[in-house]
Amino acid sequence: MSKPSLSLVIRTLDSAATLGAVLGALDLGENDELVVVDSGSTDGTLEIARKHGARIVPIAAQEFTYGRSLNVGFRAAGRPWVLSLSSHTVPAAKGFLATYRQAIARFPDTVTAAVGPIVGEFGAPLPAGITFFVGDELARGFGFGAGNPNALYRRDAWVGRPFDEQIGGGEDLLWYIQALRAGETVAAVHAAQVRYISRRPTRAFYRKGRVDHRAAARLIQPHQPTLGGVVVRSLKLLVLLLLGRVDWHGARGGVAHALGGLVEARALAKSARNP
Questions:
Q1: How far, in Å, CA of 199 to CA of 202, rounded?
Q2: 35 and 133 in a common domain
Q3: How far apart are CA 62 and CA 65, in angstroms?
Q4: Angstrom distance (rounded) from CA 126 to CA 172
Q5: In angstroms, how far is CA 4 from the centroid of its own chain?
Q6: Are residues 132 and 188 in the same domain?
Q7: DSSP sequence for 54-88
Q8: Which positions ≥6 away from 213 have C-beta within 8 Å?
Q9: Which residues are CB-neighbours of 270 under 8 A, at least 6 positions away?
Q10: Average of pLDDT values for 83-88?
Q11: Mean pLDDT value across the chain
Q12: Residue 128 has what pLDDT?
């Protein structure tokens, strides 16, 4: 059985601190291609990308949206399956792309997208296997962090349904829901795990927490964060920091993201009470 070749699309903006680790962990095949969509890096990101054989596609910073940058990258991609990967998500184990290739061979013809888990700092590794979602089975999400930081798409399905370029976040979740409504199948490939690393400012994690919750609430019924939950998460992160299982950047980012989700949930609840 031939191994399916993949296009990898990675969005970057001053990602030099993490991009090398991401690209260095990829088991690229001879016929795979790497496309980097960059919106104005000045920190050495492009040099790292070129070193790994990437084709760089620029996008003006003022034109950037999450959906538009992905559409730009997917248009440049030439393989039947396209993997969207973040410049901050490092494959958690060897054979990351091989795991996706093996999954593709098992997919029924109805599968047009697949996600791999973003492993949490205290979440146990998921067992191997594939879960298939159909109909309204994504009403409460995947049950673990997942989306365009680590997501595979059948390119011909994307051609007929490009990502929404105006939505402020959640372009991946919207795509999955539209696919399911069209009678397609979305898969979760449990072993295709990545770990999230970032050196972004605390305020960026906070904003991302708000954006993520707002996007999820618009499309599904997300878990409702509580102040107690944020406190518990913060204490867990403190313990993991002391044990050396997360670094300072990861700990502060996790707390800021959780706090952002809580603030956004409360803002949405208030607006619902006072339309």
A1: 9
A2: yes
A3: 9
A4: 22
A5: 22
A6: yes
A7: PEEEE--GGG--HHHHHHHHHHH--SSEEEEEETT
A8: 222, 225, 260, 261, 264, 265, 268
A9: none
A10: 95
A11: 89
A12: 76
Question: Reduced to 3 states, what is the DSSP secondary structure of residue 226?
Answer: coil
* Predicted local confidence at residue 54, as pLDDT: 96
Asked if 111 contacts 154 with a C-beta cutoff of 8 angstroms, the reply is yes
Domain interval for residue 247? 202-273
Q: Which amino acid is at 160?
A: G
Residues 117 and 169 in one domain: yes
Q: How many domains does the chain have?
A: 2
Q: Measured in Å, how far apart are the chain's first and last C-alpha atoms?
A: 58
Question: Cα angle vertex 91, ends 134, 54, to 5°?
Answer: 100
CB 256 within 8 A of CB 203: yes
Specify the higher pLDDT residue, 56 or 272.
56
Q: Strand pairing partners for 194?
A: 91, 118
User: Which residue, among 41, 120, 32, has the nearest Cα to 77 in the 3D structure?
Assistant: 32
What one-character-per-residue DSSP string does 120-157 give? -SSPPPPPS-EEEE-TTTTTT--SSB-STTEEEEEHHH
Task: Give the DSSP per-residue string, 16-51.
Answer: HHHHHHHHHT----TT-EEEEEES---SSHHHHHHH
Give the count of beta carbons closer than 10 Å to the beta carbon of residue 5.
17
